[in-house]
Write a structure and sequence with these properties.
By secondary structure, the chain is an all-alpha fold. It is about 65% helix and about 0% strand. It is globular. About 50% of the residues are buried.
Length: about 375
């Protein structure tokens, strides 16, 4: 089960992950001369590494309870009820759709089925068959197909294209069942990236999202991938997209943090010294993300995502006190970028947390000053 949840967390917000693990390991000793064991994170009340929750970036107990029921009983009705009661245009619906689809996909991977075995994720197939007009079943099915394409096929192959085309049709069906719902179109953003939509096609899709949820952070993160250098854009286009989103962000919106995600997507493929993370482009992006975090609602479902990425950049920038301030809010949950890029998200997070503690104490900090 731990492996299943680790894989699900890695799928959240992106399926094409950056190859940064090796370079992060290569740079780690350049962050601070102190060994991470020089200070004890437990002194700050932080959760032990073995108890860190790798399933999601922050708490959503309703989702966890429903997933437990669905996977234990293979009865979809609790999932249907939860989605029906989740705000259509909100970030939480998108995250829950991803979680349900990811759970079904990973069940299928663990139990592909056979002559005498029921395949995993059967509850989703039953849900779709018994409730064909249920918008929840339609949108989870569409996301399931997208995840299956990225997980089981290689972009550019016939198998990948076939599954993605089926996913595109499923997105259309889901959109018809819930006209005001942005999530089917958010899912199609991954299809657009995989099927190499032309820029006019992509922009037409993007306008449909803006019409329904113009400040949807999850949608902006999904769209950012299309504009990135490794897909169909460039560093300049990705930065321009992120900066435009930040510029038009309404008060209290986390869209002001978009440039930091654009910087993360384009980290150089070389060993870096701390000066890179103290450069103008990184400092400006970090400042925008910090402003977004301090202005956002405490219950914003995307807040933990931004805080986790901030921890990464603040530690790399040797801004120890600020890193510790963010760690207080996110400690305990590690199912977010950049930790999910690691084969062991808990260990990766714990390493950065230990570095933050060591740097904080080397500069005169202590548990008493952190909580004062």
């Amino acid at each position: 089960m731990a492996i299943l949840w680790a894989l699900m967390a890695a799928l959240l917000l992106s399926f094409a992950l950056l190859p940064v693990l090796r370079r992060r390991r290569g740079m780690i000793e350049q962050v601070h001369p102190s060994h991470p064991d020089a200070a004890d994170p437990a002194d700050y009340g932080f959760v032990r590494e073995e108890d860190l929750d790798i399933r999601m970036p922050g708490p959503d107990q309703d989702l966890l309870d429903v997933l437990d029921v669905v996977q234990r009983t293979q009865d979809y009705r609790a999932a249907s009820q939860l989605l029906a009661g989740t705000e259509i245009a909100g970030e939480l619906r998108w995250q829950r759709v991803q979680a349900f689809a990811g759970a079904a996909a990973l069940e299928l991977q663990e139990r592909p089925g056979g002559v005498s075995e029921t395949p995993g994720g059967q509850w989703l197939r039953v849900w779709r068959a018994e409730q064909p007009k249920d918008a929840g079943s339609a949108v989870v099915h569409a996301e399931f197909l997208v995840q299956q394409a990225w997980r089981t096929s290689t972009p550019g192959t016939d198998d990948f294209r076939i599954i993605m085309e089926e996913a595109r049709d499923a997105c259309g069906q889901a959109a018809l069942l819930s006209p005001g719902d942005p999530v089917p179109y958010v899912i199609e953003l991954a299809v657009a990236r995989g099927l190499n939509y032309s820029r006019p096609e992509f922009e037409q899709l993007w306008l449909k999202i803006l019409d329904r949820a113009p400040a949807h952070m999850g949608a902006h993160l999904a769209a950012l991938h299309y504009w990135c250098e490794k897909w169909h854009g460039s560093r300049e286009l990705a930065y321009s997209f992120a900066e435009a989103a930040a510029a038009r962000a309404p008060r209290g919106s986390l869209l002001a943090a978009m440039p930091l995600f654009a910087v993360f997507e384009h980290l150089p493929e070389v060993n870096l010294v701390a000066s890179f993370y103290q450069s103008e482009v990184v400092t400006k992006a970090v400042h925008g993300a910090l402003h977004a975090v301090h202005s956002a609602r405490e219950d914003d479902p995307m807040l933990a995502h931004v805080r986790h990425l901030l921890v990464f950049f603040l530690v790399r920038s040797e801004r120890w006190a600020e890193a510790m301030a963010e760690l207080i809010h996110v400690d305990g949950h590690v199912g977010a970028l950049p930790w999910t890029l690691s084969a062991n998200p808990a260990a990766e997070f714990a390493l950065y947390r230990a570095l933050a503690v060591a740097g904080y104490e080397a500069n005169g900090g202590s548990p008493a000053t952190l909580h004062s």
